Amino acid sequence: MSTAPFPILPSRTLQDLGERVALARRARGLTQRDLAHLAGVGASSIVALEKGHPGVALGTLARALDALSLLAEIDGLLAPQRDPALTDFAVSRLRRTR
Fold it and tell me: Does the pTM exceed 0.85?
Protein backbone atom coordinates (compact mmCIF):
# COMPACT_ATOMS: atom_id res chain seq x y z
CA MET A 1 0.00 0.00 0.00
CA SER A 2 1.53 3.29 -1.10
CA THR A 3 0.77 6.62 0.54
CA ALA A 4 0.77 10.00 -1.12
CA PRO A 5 3.50 12.40 -0.04
CA PHE A 6 2.52 14.82 2.70
CA PRO A 7 1.65 18.24 1.22
CA ILE A 8 4.37 20.89 1.52
CA LEU A 9 2.39 23.61 3.30
CA PRO A 10 0.99 21.40 6.10
CA SER A 11 4.41 19.79 6.41
CA ARG A 12 6.08 23.17 6.93
CA THR A 13 3.41 24.16 9.44
CA LEU A 14 4.03 20.98 11.45
CA GLN A 15 7.77 21.65 11.35
CA ASP A 16 7.20 25.19 12.61
CA LEU A 17 4.97 23.90 15.40
CA GLY A 18 7.61 21.35 16.35
CA GLU A 19 10.26 24.04 16.48
CA ARG A 20 8.04 26.11 18.80
CA VAL A 21 7.53 23.12 21.08
CA ALA A 22 11.32 22.63 21.18
CA LEU A 23 11.85 26.32 22.01
CA ALA A 24 9.27 26.17 24.80
CA ARG A 25 10.93 23.04 26.18
CA ARG A 26 14.40 24.55 26.09
CA ALA A 27 13.16 27.80 27.65
CA ARG A 28 12.08 25.69 30.62
CA GLY A 29 15.46 23.98 30.83
CA LEU A 30 14.03 20.59 29.89
CA THR A 31 15.59 17.88 27.78
CA GLN A 32 13.49 15.89 25.34
CA ARG A 33 13.66 13.01 27.79
CA ASP A 34 12.46 15.29 30.63
CA LEU A 35 9.49 16.48 28.59
CA ALA A 36 8.66 12.93 27.56
CA HIS A 37 8.64 11.87 31.21
CA LEU A 38 6.44 14.81 32.26
CA ALA A 39 4.07 14.19 29.36
CA GLY A 40 3.92 10.44 29.92
CA VAL A 41 5.09 9.59 26.40
CA GLY A 42 8.22 8.07 24.93
CA ALA A 43 11.22 10.24 24.11
CA SER A 44 10.88 9.20 20.46
CA SER A 45 7.41 10.80 20.43
CA ILE A 46 8.86 14.12 21.58
CA VAL A 47 11.64 13.88 18.98
CA ALA A 48 9.03 13.21 16.27
CA LEU A 49 6.82 16.05 17.53
CA GLU A 50 9.71 18.51 17.50
CA LYS A 51 10.68 17.42 13.98
CA GLY A 52 7.13 18.01 12.77
CA HIS A 53 6.50 14.39 11.83
CA PRO A 54 2.93 14.14 10.45
CA GLY A 55 2.28 10.82 12.21
CA VAL A 56 2.48 12.24 15.73
CA ALA A 57 -0.81 11.75 17.55
CA LEU A 58 -2.83 14.79 18.52
CA GLY A 59 -2.91 13.36 22.04
CA THR A 60 0.88 13.49 22.16
CA LEU A 61 0.80 17.18 21.28
CA ALA A 62 -1.83 17.81 23.95
CA ARG A 63 0.17 15.92 26.58
CA ALA A 64 3.36 17.81 25.68
CA LEU A 65 1.57 21.17 25.80
CA ASP A 66 0.05 20.24 29.15
CA ALA A 67 3.49 19.30 30.52
CA LEU A 68 4.76 22.70 29.34
CA SER A 69 1.75 24.47 30.94
CA LEU A 70 0.64 25.56 27.47
CA LEU A 71 -2.45 23.42 26.97
CA ALA A 72 -4.73 26.48 27.04
CA GLU A 73 -3.06 27.60 23.78
CA ILE A 74 -4.87 24.80 21.97
CA ASP A 75 -8.17 26.61 22.62
CA GLY A 76 -7.29 29.13 19.92
CA LEU A 77 -7.31 26.42 17.26
CA LEU A 78 -10.51 26.56 15.27
CA ALA A 79 -12.06 29.02 17.71
CA PRO A 80 -15.54 29.69 16.30
CA GLN A 81 -15.23 33.45 16.72
CA ARG A 82 -12.08 33.45 14.55
CA ASP A 83 -13.60 31.48 11.66
CA PRO A 84 -15.11 33.80 9.02
CA ALA A 85 -16.86 30.90 7.28
CA LEU A 86 -18.58 29.89 10.51
CA THR A 87 -19.64 33.48 11.15
CA ASP A 88 -21.10 33.75 7.62
CA PHE A 89 -22.86 30.41 8.07
CA ALA A 90 -24.39 31.49 11.40
CA VAL A 91 -25.56 34.82 9.98
CA SER A 92 -27.18 33.15 6.98
CA ARG A 93 -28.94 30.65 9.27
CA LEU A 94 -30.20 33.45 11.49
CA ARG A 95 -31.57 35.33 8.49
CA ARG A 96 -33.59 32.26 7.46
CA THR A 97 -35.27 32.02 10.86
CA ARG A 98 -36.76 35.53 10.78
Answer: no
